[in-house]
C-alpha cells in the first residue's frame, strides 16, 4: 500500500457513530491515547447525543475542544428518514410520457407466494410527478430542448403545491447531462430554499427506473441530512469543536459534510460501512485472506465479506425493504439506489429485538425493536416487552448488575417478568424460553452471513469471522459453529468498533462515466479514465491514490460485476487482463464463464483515496481494566453451568477451554462449551473450535 498522505496530526481525532440504542465515540490523542465513550442515543435529535458524547470523551481525556483536528461521523439519519417515511414532500420532474416510471419499476418480488405483499409506495406521489415537453434522444439530440418559459411555469406550480424537494430525471439525460443540469439550475433559481437534485449528478447511468429512484431518494432525504449536519456542526462549534466534519459514505470512505449534503444518497449505509472498514483494516494488518464481518447492535445484525483485504462494493442496492441482502429476482422490497455501497446483508435481530409467539405457537425474534427508549425491560426505563437482551441477562450471559461501563443498570427481575408471558405461551420455563430465543436469533443471523458468502459462490467455512457491535461477541461463536467457521476474532473495543473504523478510514471520492461507442478505441477509453482520475485528484489533492474500475457483464445480462483495472498504461494487453479477471470472477460467483466476444463494458469508474495517517494498530492497545477480580456465575447452555467471568486482560496467549464470559466495557464475549479461547498479540479475543 502507498504511504499515507500526511504525518500524524498534532491533535485529537474523534470518531462518533450513532446506533439505534447507543451512540459510540472514540477519541485518539496525538500521543496514541485511546479514550472510549458509550452513551444512550437521543432520538429524535441524534446529533445532540453526538455533541454530548464528544464533550464527555474530551473531558475524560483531559483534552480541550480546540485540540480536535478531525471530527469523523457515521450516521443513520438518511436511512431513518426512509424507514420512518419522514422525508419532505418530494416532486419528480421528467420527460412527458415517463411520469409513472417509479410505479412501473421492475418485475421483482422479494417473496413469490405472499399474495398480501404490495410494492412500496413511491417516495414522490403521482400528483407530485410533473412532465416537461422536452426530449433527449438516445443519440443525445434535443427534440425539442426544454423551454425556459415552460420550466418557469412548472416552478410556479411546484411552489403552489408546497414542494420541498425536486428530483429532475429526464429521459436519456446520461448522454446529455448538460440539458438536465440546465433544467435543475432554472428550478433552483425559481425555487429558493427548495432542495433540487439532478439525476446525472447522483447516478449518471442508463436504466431509467434505477436512475429516477436514486435521484428521488436523494431529494427525499436531502433536506433532513442537510438540516442534521448543519445543526450538528453548529452544536459542535458551540462547544468549541471547530474541526472539519467528515462523514462515512456507504462505500467505506469519508467525505466532507458539504459534499454529503449535496449527495446524501451516498451515506445511506454510513454506520454499517464504518464497522466493515475497521474489519478491513484489521484483516490487512493480520494478513487474513477471507473474513466475514459480523456486526450486531441493538436493532439489527449485519454481515459483510472481505477478500484479500477488500470488501465487496455493490453498484446498487435497496433501502427501506427490511433485510438489505435481497438480490436479483428476490429484490423489490425497497427503493433502488445506484451509488457505491459496501455489500452488507442485514436482518432485524439485535439486542433490543422483541421476542414473541405467533398464532401457531412459533417463537420469533424481531424485527420489531425496543430501541433505546424505553429499551429492554431489564434496563428499568419502562420497557415491558421481552427482548434478546432480557434473554441474555436471564441466561447469565450478561452482567446482572450493569452494562456500558456501569452507565446502564440491569434489573434481572424485570427481565424474567417480561419473559414470563412468552414462557407461559410456550409451556416452558423462563430460562428455557430465553435459550430458545437465543437459538432462534442465531438461526436468523445465518441468513445474513449466507447472503454474502454462499450466495456469492463463497464457502463460509473458508473464512474467519470478526465479530463486533454491542451484541455481536455474544452470538458470534454459536453463529460460527452453525456455519462451520472455525475461528472467531473479537477485536478490542468491539462495541465501539464502528467508531474505531471512522478513525482509520480514508477520505474517498468516486466518479463515473457510462460506456459510449467511441470508447471502443483504447486511446479514447484511456483519455476518459485520465479525465476522471484528474477530477478526483483535484478534489482530493495530488497525493490521492486513484483506482480504475470497469463495470462488466456478458451480452444479454441485466447485472454487472465491478472489476479493477490493473495498474499501468491502458493498452490492449491490459484490457485483455481485465477481461480475464472478469471471466474468473463471474465463474466464481455464478459457476460459469463466457468468452471475450460476449463481454460488454457498462460503466467506467475511478475511486480516489486520500490515505489516512492512522493505522489500526495504533488503536489496538489493551483497554483499561474496568471491574474487579474474575468471578463465576451460572450460565445456561444445554444445561446450567458454573462459568468463569473474566476481563480481556485476564486472558493468556495459550488457549483454554470454555465455557467463559469475557467482559469489556462496551461488550460481552461468550465462549460456549467445546470452544477454546486465547488473546493474540493484537489483543484480540480468539475463539476456535476443535483440537488446539
Can you describe what's shown?
With 692 residues, this protein is of the alpha+beta class. Helices cover 31% and strands 26% of the residues. It contains 16 helices and 35 strands. Strands 11, 12, 13, 18, 23, 24, 31, 34 and 35 form a nine-stranded mixed sheet that branches. Strands 3-2-1-4-9-10 form a six-stranded mixed sheet, sandwiched between helices. A four-stranded parallel sheet has the order 6-5-7-8, with helices on both faces. The radius of gyration is 26 Å and the shape is globular.
Averaged pLDDT = 89
Q: Could you tell me the strand content as a percent range?
A: 25-35%
The number of distinct helices, counting runs of at least 4 residues, comes to 16
Task: Please give the share of residues in helix.
Answer: 25-40%
C-alpha geometry? globular
Q: What's the gyration radius in Å?
A: 26 Å
Distance from N terminus to C terminus (CA atoms, Å) equals: 34 Å
User: What structural category arises from helix and sheet content?
Assistant: alpha+beta
Number of strands: 35
Please outline the major beta sheet: 9 strands, mixed
Q: Spans of 5+ residues with little confidence (pLDDT < 50)?
A: 1-8, 323-329
Protein name: Hydantoinase/oxoprolinase family protein
Pfam family, one: Hydant_A_N
InterPro entries: ATPase_NBD, Hydant_A_N, Hydantoinase_A, Oxoprolinase-like
Domain Hydantoinase A/oxoprolinase: 211-509
Amino acid at each position: 500500500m502507498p504511504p499515507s498522505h500526511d504525518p500524524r496530526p498534532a491533535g485529537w481525532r474523534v470518531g462518533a457513530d450513532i446506533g439505534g440504542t447507543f451512540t459510540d465515540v472514540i477519541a485518539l490523542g496525538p500521543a496514541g491515547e485511546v479514550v472510549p465513550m458509550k452513551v444512550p442515543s437521543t432520538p429524535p435529535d441524534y446529533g445532540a447525543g453526538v455533541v454530548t458524547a464528544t464533550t464527555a470523551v474530551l473531558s475524560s481525556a483531559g483534552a480541550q475542544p480546540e485540540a480536535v483536528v478531525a471530527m469523523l461521523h457515521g450516521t443513520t439519519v438518511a436511512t431513518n428518514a426512509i424507514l420512518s417515511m419522514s422525508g419532505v414532500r418530494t416532486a419528480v420532474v421528467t420527460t412527458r410520457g415517463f411520469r409513472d416510471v417509479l410505479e412501473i419499476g421492475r418485475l421483482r418480488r422479494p417473496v413469490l407466494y405472499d399474495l398480501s405483499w404490495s410494492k412500496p409506495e413511491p417516495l414522490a406521489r403521482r400528483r407530485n410527478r410533473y412532465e416537461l415537453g422536452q426530449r433527449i434522444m438516445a443519440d443525445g439530440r434535443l427534440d425539442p430542448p426544454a423551454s425556459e418559459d415552460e420550466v418557469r411555469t412548472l416552478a410556479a406550480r411546484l411552489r403552489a403545491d408546497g414542494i420541498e424537494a425536486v428530483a429532475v430525471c429526464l429521459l436519456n439525460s446520461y448522454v446529455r447531462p448538460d440539458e438536465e443540469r440546465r433544467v435543475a439550475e432554472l428550478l433552483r433559481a425559481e425555487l429558493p430554499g427548495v432542495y433540487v437534485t439532478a439525476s446525472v449528478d447522483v447516478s449518471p447511468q442508463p436504466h431509467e427506473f434505477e436512475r429516477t429512484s436514486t435521484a428521488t431518494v436523494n431529494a427525499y432525504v436531502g433536506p433532513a441530512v442537510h438540516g442534521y449536519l448543519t445543526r450538528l456542526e453548529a452544536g459542535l462549534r458551540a462547544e468549541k469543536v471547530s474541526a472539519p466534519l467528515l462523514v462515512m459514505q456507504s462505500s467505506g470512505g469519508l467525505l466532507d459534510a458539504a459534499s454529503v449534503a449535496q449527495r446524501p444518497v451516498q451515506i445511506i449505509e454510513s454506520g454499517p460501512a464504518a464497522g466493515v472498514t475497521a474489519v478491513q483494516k484489521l484483516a490487512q494488518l493480520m494478513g487474513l485472506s477471507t473474513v466475514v464481518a459480523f456486526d450486531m447492535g441493538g436493532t439489527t445484525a449485519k454481515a459483510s465479506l472481505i477478500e484479500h483485504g477488500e470488501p465487496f462494493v455493490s453498484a446498487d442496492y435497496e433501502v427501506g425493504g427490511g433485510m438489505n441482502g435481497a438480490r436479483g429476482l428476490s429484490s423489490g422490497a425497497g427503493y433502488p439506489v445506484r451509488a457505491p455501497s459496501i455489500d452488507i446483508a442485514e436482518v432485524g435481530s439485535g439486542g433490543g429485538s422483541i421476542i414473541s409467539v405467533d398464532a401457531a405457537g412459533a417463537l420469533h425474534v424481531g424485527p420489531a425493536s425496543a430501541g433505546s427508549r424505553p429499551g429492554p425491560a431489564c434496563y428499568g426505563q419502562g420497557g415491558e416487552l421481552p427482548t434478546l437482551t432480557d434473554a441474555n441477562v436471564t441466561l447469565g450471559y450478561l452482567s446482572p448488575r450493569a452494562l456500558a461501563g456501569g452507565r446502564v443498570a440491569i434489573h434481572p427481575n424485570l427481565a424474567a417478568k417480561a419473559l414470563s408471558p412468552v414462557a407461559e405461551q410456550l409451556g416452558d420455563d423462563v430460562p428455557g424460553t430465553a435459550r430458545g430465543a437465543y437459538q432462534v436469533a442465531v438461526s436468523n443471523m445465518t441468513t445474513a452471513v449466507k447472503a454474502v458468502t454462499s450466495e456469492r459462490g463463497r464457502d463460509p467455512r473458508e473464512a474467519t469471522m470478526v465479530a463486533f457491535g454491542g451484541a455481536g461477541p455474544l452470538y458470534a461463536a454459536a453463529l460460527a459453529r452453525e456455519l462451520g467457521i472455525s475461528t472467531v476474532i473479537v477485536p478490542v473495543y468491539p462495541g465501539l468498533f464502528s467508531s474505531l473504523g471512522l478513525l482509520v478510514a480514508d477520505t474517498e471520492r468516486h466518479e463515473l462515466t457510462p460506456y459510449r461507442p467511441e470508447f471502443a478505441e483504447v486511446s479514447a477509453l484511456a483519455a476518459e479514465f485520465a479525465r476522471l482520475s484528474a477530477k478526483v485528484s483535484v478534489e482530493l489533492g495530488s497525493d490521492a491514490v486513484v483506482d480504475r474500475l470497469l463495470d462488466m457483464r456478458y451480452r444479454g445480462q441485466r447485472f454487472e460485476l465491478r472489476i479493477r483495472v490493473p495498474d499501468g498504461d491502458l493498452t490492449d494487453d491490459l484490457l485483455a487482463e481485465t477481461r480475464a479477471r472478469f471471466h474468473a470472477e463471474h465463474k466464481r460467483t455464478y459457476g460459469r464463464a463466457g468468452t471475450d466476444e460476449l463481454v460488454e463494458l457498462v460503466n467506467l469508474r475511478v475511486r480516489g483515496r486520500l490515505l489516512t495517517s492512522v493505522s489500526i494498530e495504533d488503536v489496538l492497545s489493551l483497554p483499561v481494566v474496568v471491574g474487579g477480580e474474575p468471578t463465576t456465575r451460572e450460565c445456561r447452555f444445554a444445561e446450567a453451568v458454573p462459568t468463569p467471568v473474566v476481563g480481556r486482560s485476564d486472558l493468556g496467549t495459550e488457549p483454554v477451554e470454555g465455557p467463559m464470559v469475557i467482559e469489556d466495557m462496551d461488550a460481552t464475549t461468550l465462549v460456549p462449551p467445546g470452544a477454546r479461547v486465547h488473546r493474540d498479540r493484537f489483543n484480540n479475543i480468539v475463539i476456535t473450535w476443535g483440537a488446539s
